[in-house]
Amino acid sequence: MSPKRVLLARPHGYCAGVDRAVQAVEKALDVYGPPVYVRKEIVHNRHVVETLKARGAVFVEDNHEVPEGAVVVFSAHGVAPEVHSSAAARALRTIDATCPLVTKVHNEARRFAAEDYDILLIGHQGHEEVVGTTGQAPDRIHVVDGPQDVAGVTVRDPAKVAWLSQTTLSVDETMQAVERLRERFPLLQSPPSDDICYATQNRQQAVKQIAPSCDVVVVVGSGNSSNSLRLREVALGAGARAAYLVDFAHQIDETWLLEADTVGVTAGASVPAGLVEDVLDRLAGHGFTDVSEVAATRETTVFALPQELRADIRRSRTRED
Ligand code: SF4
């Protein structure tokens, strides 16, 4: 019988921005008590959202669904300035859990817009992060939804054009889009540092390392999670014979494993560790007991909780003392 093994890509799962956003909702529930309103999914993961709902978080699509004066948390994907204004108009107590690396892109967008550039934002049309970033400079930003969109871009002055991107894209596909943009606009300005975040890059790098040796790669993540979807594509592009996205271990179809000797496992940046452990347990139940970790890099990034929440946590501790 051939050996059945699992290659576990590292890093996988939670990034610093997701950890911060999920903790922000948990701490808000501790400090203010339920209900705590959350505008949009705090992160794109079904399990995380359901777990927080069970603790008293109420997920809404927009501020008008939040009672006046209540606490609302903005998701890790970031919001347009008008979302802050509409919250202020309803006297909402806001906790902004926008990932600091998304805020960095917002700042770049505002700076390029202030210098009168047209900004070509590479990203998925309609994705919450893209909507939030576009809102920073709506008159200046054009969304470029992949290399195929480049030909249709129109700008005011081809000599004053800059590109930015969503944080969770495929690194390789984004670079293709940038190359095509540069062919059309040779004076194209780049962001001062990578917009695709460290967590997205590291998870893609790690899955690229395991994929060529894998018959099947299981990506744990939700269907609306951009970085999880990209991991599946990157795995296939890097040589995995098949790759599947699952929210939960029970969604692994036994037939995927029938011809497999080596199964790769990774998880998107919004996936808690327990869901990956469940997948490893299920694979072990099918004889895949030999698990080797393949580490692309070690991550040490940690973000502090939103400032407005830290102040209230301190106050509630003082009251308890
Ligand atoms: S994936 Fe990147 S940008 Fe998104 S929350 Fe995580 S660290 Fe922040």
Automatic annotation (TrEMBL):
E.C. numbers: 1.17.7.4
Residues reported in the UniProt entry to bind [4Fe-4S] cluster: C15, C99, C197
Presence of the UniProt keyword ATP-binding in the record: no
Binding residues for dimethylallyl diphosphate: H44, H77, H127, S225, S226, N227, S270
Single GO term (MF): 4-hydroxy-3-methylbut-2-enyl diphosphate reductase activity
Catalytic activity entry: isopentenyl diphosphate + 2 oxidized [2Fe-2S]-[ferredoxin] + H2O = (2E)-4-hydroxy-3-methylbut-2-enyl diphosphate + 2 reduced [2Fe-2S]-[ferredoxin] + 2 H(+); dimethylallyl diphosphate + 2 oxidized [2Fe-2S]-[ferredoxin] + H2O = (2E)-4-hydroxy-3-methylbut-2-enyl diphosphate + 2 reduced [2Fe-2S]-[ferredoxin] + 2 H(+)
Signal as UniProt keyword: no
Record-annotated active site: E129 (proton donor)
UniProt cofactor(s): [4Fe-4S] cluster
Residue numbers binding isopentenyl diphosphate: H44, H77, H127, S225, S226, N227, S270
UniProt-annotated binding residues for (2E)-4-hydroxy-3-methylbut-2-enyl diphosphate: H44, H77, H127, T167, S225, S226, N227, S270
Keywords attached to this entry: 4Fe-4S, Iron, Iron-sulfur, Isoprene biosynthesis, Metal-binding, Oxidoreductase
Primary role: Catalyzes the conversion of 1-hydroxy-2-methyl-2-(E)-butenyl 4-diphosphate (HMBPP) into a mixture of isopentenyl diphosphate (IPP) and dimethylallyl diphosphate (DMAPP). Acts in the terminal step of the DOXP/MEP pathway for isoprenoid precursor biosynthesis.
NCBIfam families: ispH_lytB, PRK01045.1-3, PRK01045.1-4
Similarity comment: Belongs to the IspH family.
Protein name: 4-hydroxy-3-methylbut-2-enyl diphosphate reductase
Source organism of this protein record: Streptosporangium brasiliense
Taxon lineage: Bacteria, Bacillati, Actinomycetota, Actinomycetes, Streptosporangiales
